[in-house]
Write a structure and sequence with these properties.
With about 375 residues, this protein is α/β, with parallel strands linked by helices. It has 14 helices and 15 strands.
């Protein structure tokens, strides 16, 4: 099976931490959507497998008229083999969600919603420069549930300089009380050239406190487990049978096609990424050319990417898979390198898998880098 991601690069305003490709102007929305529809046709031969997941992200897909969402999904169905039970996710912000749009999304085939809550506290939303209000966070989830959505994910952010442990616990409790099936919880990061990065550089905002983030991450793991959510990836928690099929496919190296400016694609051997400029993307697609750069991954790069992603998951690194794809010598070296981390109590080897322990999850990226080939 395969996946398709569509990037819709429009937002009402810029969050201070965001480094994704987006525009706060809708002036190019019509030519951009026409280009998306044309790229779908141009890319019809990229995937040979049936499509099991579709993900409309951004940007803020919920900001645009539902008719465009309908047209995009219809175009995908015309050009690709879409599984009857495909997971089709739409990213949304709370302030865009209303009964009319909910009905239209249902009619379009959307069966999973991912809502950018980030926090239920007004002062944190204001500090992040989010467009929605705290009360809209609660109302949006209730509207989706009343509208028939039974597969809802929300995003939360922790580790903000002005966020107390008590406030973080309140955010988790509110999410649990709402009964959402899935949570994606991210530590705040300062990406270069974002508003947050500039504020920290100028001393307007304090540096991100890694100890605070580590403590709140430990709280997160303990709290969600007690509430019945499984941590199937370091940042992702779900009730039983509600893992994100789309993101899980990424972590397993399953092929996917990215449509839209800045979207990435992967066919198992090579990666491609579209230009992150709306005007140049539109002009190129109109001319019938895919504005993408391409990199063919070496065996070493494929191994390192597998280690990086697999180690973050509940299942961990499969030694059998490593041996099958990269050989017994690579497997033995990996097992040897993992031993020093096992001796520190940060990971374990069980059932032919290398899996991080609770404390190891605090150092996931560093441990993965040490295990690279």
């Amino acid at each position: 099976m395969a996946g398709i991601y569509i990037h819709i690069p429009f937002c009402k305003q810029a969050c201070n931490y965001c480094d994704f490709h987006f525009s706060t102007s809708l002036q190019q929305s019509v030519p951009l959507f026409n280009a998306l529809l044309k790229e779908i046709i141009l890319r019809k031969d990229y995937l040979t497998e049936p499509v099991d997941t579709i993900y409309l992200g951004g940007g803020t897909p919920s900001l645009v008229e539902p008719n465009w969402i309908v047209q995009l999904i219809n175009a995908l169905q015309q050009q690709f083999i879409i599984a009857r039970d495909a997971e089709i996710t739409l990213e949304a912000n709370p302030d865009d969600i209303n009964k009319t749009k909910i009905a239209a999304w249902h009619a379009a085939g959307i069966n999973r919603m991912s809502v950018g809550i980030q926090s239920f506290h007004p002062h944190l939303l204001s500090w992040m420069n989010r467009a929605h209000r705290a009360e809209q966070s609660l109302n949006s989830i209730e509207l989706l549930q009343e509208g028939g959505f039974d597969n809802i994910s929300i995003d939360l952010i922790y580790g903000c300089p002005n966020q107390t442990d008590a406030e973080w616990k309140e955010d988790m409790n509110r999410a649990i009380a709402l009964g959402v099936q899935h949570l994606s919880c991210y530590a705040l990061t300062s990406e270069p050239k974002t508003a947050l990065w500039h504020h920290i550089e100028k001393g307007v905002t304090p540096e991100i406190n890694s100890d605070q983030q580590a403590n709140q991450f430990l709280q997160l793991m303990e709290h969600m487990e007690a509430a019945g959510y499984e941590q199937y990836e370091i940042s992702n928690f779900s009730l039983p049978n509600y893992r994100s099929r789309h993101n899980s496919a990424y972590w397993k190296g399953i092929p996917y096609l990215g449509i839209g400016p800045s979207a990435h694609s992967f066919n198992g051997i090579a990666r491609e990424w579209n230009i992150n400029n709306n005007s140049r993307y539109i002009d190129s697609i109109v001319a019938g050319k895919i504005p993408a750069s391409k990199e063919v991954l070496t065996s070493k790069q494929q191994f390192n990417e597998y280690v990086m992603t697999a180690l973050r998951t509940r299942d961990g690194i499969s030694l059998n898979q490593v041996r099958e794809l990269w050989g017994a010598e690579v497997e033995e070296k990996l097992r040897y390198e993992a031993q020093k981390w096992a001796m520190q109590g940060l990971l374990t080897e069980k059932n032919q898998h290398i899996v991080l322990n609770t404390q190891g999850k605090l150092m996931a990226d560093g441990i993965a880098a040490d295990l690279f080939h």
